[in-house]
């Protein structure tokens, strides 16, 4: 049995759950039994009986769990899937670096989701070079029924919809877009900014509700079930990412899969995915975000061309069957020595 452990209280529609459930679904074809638990719900018997532990996030999951595994289940094989915050933040901040390094050092394999992340890790920690592999994520979600109409949500067919699928937490920085898109609305009176994601930070939620009450063009949709999210991509015109740190954004991948141009913060992870000026734009600050949002608003032909480029790329390079096979091979290689 493969026990996948996600960070404590990870939202069920967040990227970790989406990733783990996608792997659980795809690995069934090889007979793998996959159990998914958040850290606070892991039971002792599951740790004892699992053939392999697959942890998501080195610091938030590996730091509290790896000492237990080392003490009680030293022979247990462990894989850690590294996140953008692991690579870009936890490995650098003085308060988290030592614990993150220790958890990663104890793991048997480390999985990066971009070649650039692997290179950065190999440069910092050359002794881990042989145990680091790259497995890009895939997109595997319902394409949407197309039955949901804008009018049902109170949206106009003439509005340009900027859609930000992101949990309300500091690293996702969802309020960054309010000022530049507010300027664009003041000029055009014809855009809408929609945020969808679990309310993980009470202060951000409170501020967002206050802003939405004052600005009719700003909408918070709450948490949208994964089975329905495709409909919202279909209704949108531009997909946003405002994160301070990213590994590889599932939301951007999904937006590109649905043929939407993307507008994303210029951070590692986003830079690895978005080809600036080809399938979207990368911005460094609010002023650049405003300029690129305005350009996308004014040029429907550019929106269409960028959307098509992104869709072609994601359909060719981020394929579920490839991701599933790579994890099957990784699990098989790691366990064949010990089972």
First and last CA, distance: 12 Å
Order of helices and strands: EHEHEHEHHEHEHEHEHEHEHEHEHHH
Shape: elongated
> Largest beta sheet: what is the strand line-up?
2-1-3-4-5-6
What oligomeric arrangement do these chains adopt? single chain
Classify the fold: give the CATH topology of the largest domain.
Rossmann fold
At the fourth level of CATH, the homologous superfamily of the largest domain is: Glycogen Phosphorylase B
Q: How many domains is the backbone divided into?
A: 2
Look at the structure and give the mean pLDDT: 94
Our estimate of the beta-strand percent is 15-25%
Look at the structure and give the CATH class of the largest domain. Answer: Alpha Beta
Work out the number of β strands. 12
CATH architecture of the largest domain: 3-Layer(aba) Sandwich
Please outline the major beta sheet: 6 strands, parallel
Provide an overview of this structure.
The protein has 339 residues and is α/β, with parallel strands linked by helices. The protein has two domains: 2-138 and 319-336, Rossmann fold, CATH 3.40.50.2000; 150-317, Rossmann fold (3-Layer(aba) Sandwich), CATH 3.40.50. It is 46% helix and 16% strand. It is built from 15 helices and twelve strands. The protein has helices spanning 15-27, 44-49, 58-72, 84-90, 97-106, 115-124, 150-153, 178-188, 202-214, 229-235, 250-257, 270-273, 286-298, 300-317, 320-336, and strands spanning 2-6, 34-38, 52-56, 77-81, 109-112, 132-134, 160-165, 191-196, 218-220, 238-241, 262-265, 280-283. The strands form two sheets. Strands 2-1-3-4-5-6 form a six-stranded parallel beta sheet, sandwiched between helices. Strand 1, helix 1 and strand 2 form a beta-alpha-beta unit. It is elongated, with a radius of gyration of 20 Å.
């Amino acid at each position: 049995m493969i026990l996948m452990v996600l960070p404590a209280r990870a939202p069920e529609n967040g990227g970790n759950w989406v990733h783990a459930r996608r792997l659980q679904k795809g690995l069934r074809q090889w007979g793998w039994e996959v159990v998914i638990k958040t850290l606070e719900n892991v039971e002792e018997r599951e740790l004892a009986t699992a053939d392999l532990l697959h942890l998501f996030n080195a610091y938030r999951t590996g730091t509290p769990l790896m000492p237990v595994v080392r003490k009680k289940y030293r022979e247990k094989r462990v894989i850690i899937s590294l996140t953008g915050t692991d690579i870009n933040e936890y490995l650098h901040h003085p308060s988290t670096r030592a614990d993150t390094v220790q958890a990663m050092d104890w793991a048997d394999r480390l999985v990066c989701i971009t070649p650039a992340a692997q290179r950065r890790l190999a440069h910092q920690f050359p002794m881990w070079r042989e145990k680091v592999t790259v497995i890009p994520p895939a997109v595997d979600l319902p394409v949407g029924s197309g039955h949901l109409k804008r009018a049902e949500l109170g949206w106009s067919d003439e509005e340009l919809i900027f859609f930000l699928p992101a949990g309300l937490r500091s690293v996702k920085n969802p309020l960054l877009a309010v000022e530049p898109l507010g300027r664009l609305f003041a000029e055009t009176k014809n855009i809408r900014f929609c945020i969808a994601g679990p309310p993980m930070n009470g202060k951000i939620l409170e501020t967002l509700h206050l802003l939405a009450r004052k600005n009719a063009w700003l909408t918070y949709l709450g948490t949208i079930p994964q089975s329905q999210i495709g409909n919202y991509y279909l209704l949108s015109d531009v997909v946003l990412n405002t994160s301070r740190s990213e590994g590889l954004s599932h939301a951007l991948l999904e937006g590109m899969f649905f043929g939407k141009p993307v507008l994303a913060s210029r951070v590692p992870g986003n830079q690895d995915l978005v080809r600036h000026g080809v399938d979207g734009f990368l911005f460094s600050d609010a002023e650049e975000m405003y300029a690129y949002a305005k350009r996308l608003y004014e040029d429907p032909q550019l929106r269409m061309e960028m959307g098509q480029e992104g869709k072609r790329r994601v359909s060719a390079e981020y394929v579920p069957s490839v991701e599933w096979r790579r994890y099957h091979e990784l699990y098989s290689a790691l366990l064949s020595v010990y089972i």
